[in-house]
Amino acid sequence: MDRKMLVDNERLFVGDVKKCTKFKNHEVGNFGEMAVGYFEQDDETVAYNVILVKTEKGQYIDLENVYLMEALALKLIPQSSWLKMTGILMNLQPMGEGEYFVDETTLQTYDDFLYRNGNGEKVKKLQSN
Q1: Cα first-last separation, the chain
Q2: pTM flag (> 0.70)
Q3: Contact at 8 Å (CB) between 17 and 87?
Q4: Where do the domains of the chain lie?
Protein backbone atom coordinates (compact mmCIF):
# COMPACT_ATOMS: atom_id res chain seq x y z
CA MET A 1 0.00 0.00 0.00
CA ASP A 2 1.40 3.37 -1.03
CA ARG A 3 1.74 5.74 1.95
CA LYS A 4 1.37 8.79 -0.32
CA MET A 5 -2.14 7.58 -1.20
CA LEU A 6 -3.10 7.53 2.47
CA VAL A 7 -2.14 11.13 3.16
CA ASP A 8 -3.00 12.78 -0.16
CA ASN A 9 -4.59 16.21 0.51
CA GLU A 10 -7.77 15.22 -1.33
CA ARG A 11 -8.36 12.52 1.27
CA LEU A 12 -7.57 14.68 4.32
CA PHE A 13 -10.43 16.13 6.33
CA VAL A 14 -10.91 17.82 9.70
CA GLY A 15 -13.88 17.16 11.94
CA ASP A 16 -15.07 16.43 15.44
CA VAL A 17 -15.24 12.86 16.76
CA LYS A 18 -18.20 11.76 18.83
CA LYS A 19 -19.02 8.67 20.85
CA CYS A 20 -22.51 7.19 20.80
CA THR A 21 -23.75 6.99 24.41
CA LYS A 22 -27.28 5.76 23.64
CA PHE A 23 -28.63 3.85 20.65
CA LYS A 24 -32.06 2.36 21.06
CA ASN A 25 -34.47 1.06 18.43
CA HIS A 26 -38.14 1.78 19.16
CA GLU A 27 -40.41 -0.38 17.02
CA VAL A 28 -43.87 1.18 16.83
CA GLY A 29 -45.59 -1.50 14.78
CA ASN A 30 -45.46 -3.95 11.92
CA PHE A 31 -47.27 -3.55 8.64
CA GLY A 32 -46.86 -6.81 6.79
CA GLU A 33 -43.14 -7.37 6.35
CA MET A 34 -42.24 -3.76 7.13
CA ALA A 35 -41.41 -2.63 10.67
CA VAL A 36 -42.07 1.01 11.57
CA GLY A 37 -40.27 2.84 14.33
CA TYR A 38 -37.49 5.23 15.20
CA PHE A 39 -34.01 5.32 16.72
CA GLU A 40 -33.24 7.14 19.93
CA GLN A 41 -29.64 8.30 19.88
CA ASP A 42 -27.44 10.33 22.18
CA ASP A 43 -23.77 11.15 21.85
CA GLU A 44 -20.92 13.21 23.27
CA THR A 45 -18.04 14.98 21.53
CA VAL A 46 -14.74 13.39 22.52
CA ALA A 47 -12.31 15.28 20.23
CA TYR A 48 -12.42 18.52 18.25
CA ASN A 49 -10.72 19.31 14.91
CA VAL A 50 -9.27 15.85 14.38
CA ILE A 51 -7.29 15.33 11.15
CA LEU A 52 -8.95 12.42 9.35
CA VAL A 53 -8.10 10.32 6.32
CA LYS A 54 -11.07 9.23 4.19
CA THR A 55 -10.89 5.60 3.04
CA GLU A 56 -12.03 4.32 -0.34
CA LYS A 57 -15.19 2.96 1.36
CA GLY A 58 -16.10 6.40 2.77
CA GLN A 59 -15.07 5.71 6.36
CA TYR A 60 -12.65 7.87 8.33
CA ILE A 61 -9.43 7.13 10.20
CA ASP A 62 -7.74 9.47 12.66
CA LEU A 63 -4.44 10.43 10.99
CA GLU A 64 -2.59 9.15 14.08
CA ASN A 65 -3.95 5.65 13.34
CA VAL A 66 -3.15 5.54 9.60
CA TYR A 67 -0.12 3.28 9.96
CA LEU A 68 -2.06 0.91 12.22
CA MET A 69 -4.74 0.70 9.52
CA GLU A 70 -2.02 0.05 6.93
CA ALA A 71 -0.87 -2.93 9.02
CA LEU A 72 -4.47 -4.16 9.19
CA ALA A 73 -4.87 -3.83 5.42
CA LEU A 74 -1.71 -5.85 4.90
CA LYS A 75 -3.18 -8.45 7.30
CA LEU A 76 -0.32 -8.05 9.76
CA ILE A 77 -2.97 -7.60 12.48
CA PRO A 78 -6.24 -9.58 12.31
CA GLN A 79 -9.23 -7.33 11.63
CA SER A 80 -12.25 -7.63 13.91
CA SER A 81 -15.31 -5.70 15.06
CA TRP A 82 -13.29 -3.84 17.72
CA LEU A 83 -12.21 -1.30 15.06
CA LYS A 84 -15.38 0.80 15.43
CA MET A 85 -15.56 0.40 19.21
CA THR A 86 -12.01 1.75 19.62
CA GLY A 87 -12.52 4.67 17.22
CA ILE A 88 -9.88 3.48 14.77
CA LEU A 89 -12.34 3.21 11.86
CA MET A 90 -15.28 5.62 11.94
CA ASN A 91 -18.45 6.16 9.92
CA LEU A 92 -20.58 9.30 9.77
CA GLN A 93 -23.31 7.63 11.86
CA PRO A 94 -23.02 5.13 14.71
CA MET A 95 -24.56 1.68 14.32
CA GLY A 96 -24.62 0.96 18.03
CA GLU A 97 -23.93 2.25 21.51
CA GLY A 98 -20.25 2.76 22.31
CA GLU A 99 -19.16 3.36 18.71
CA TYR A 100 -17.10 6.40 17.72
CA PHE A 101 -18.13 8.37 14.64
CA VAL A 102 -17.34 11.59 12.77
CA ASP A 103 -19.76 14.49 13.22
CA GLU A 104 -20.73 15.19 9.61
CA THR A 105 -21.81 18.76 10.40
CA THR A 106 -18.23 19.67 11.39
CA LEU A 107 -16.50 17.83 8.53
CA GLN A 108 -14.46 19.97 6.12
CA THR A 109 -11.51 19.42 3.85
CA TYR A 110 -8.08 19.89 5.40
CA ASP A 111 -7.30 22.67 2.90
CA ASP A 112 -10.51 24.56 3.82
CA PHE A 113 -9.76 24.17 7.52
CA LEU A 114 -6.28 25.67 7.10
CA TYR A 115 -7.53 28.58 4.99
CA ARG A 116 -10.33 29.37 7.46
CA ASN A 117 -7.82 29.41 10.29
CA GLY A 118 -5.26 31.58 8.47
CA ASN A 119 -2.75 28.81 7.81
CA GLY A 120 -3.01 28.62 4.02
CA GLU A 121 0.76 28.53 3.60
CA LYS A 122 0.88 25.07 5.23
CA VAL A 123 -1.29 23.68 2.43
CA LYS A 124 1.27 24.72 -0.21
CA LYS A 125 4.13 23.19 1.80
CA LEU A 126 2.22 19.92 2.22
CA GLN A 127 1.45 19.74 -1.51
CA SER A 128 5.03 20.44 -2.54
CA ASN A 129 6.36 17.38 -0.65
Answers
A1: 19
A2: no
A3: yes
A4: 3-128
Report the C-alpha gap between 101 and 89 in whole angstroms.
8
Question: Whole-angstrom Cα distance, residue 60 to residue 11?
Answer: 9
φ, ψ for residue 67 (rounded to 5)?
-70, -30
> Are 60 and 83 a contacting pair, CB within 8 Å?
no
Write the pLDDT tens digit of every residue in 101-128.
999 999 999 989 888 887 655 444 444 4
Nearest to 101 by CA among 114, 117, 84, 118: 84
Partners of 117 in beta bridges = none
Which residues is 7 bridged to in the sheet?
A: none
Mean pLDDT, rounded, for 77-92: 63
Q: What is the mean pLDDT of the chain?
A: 76
Asked if 101 and 20 touch (Cβ cutoff 8 Å), the reply is yes
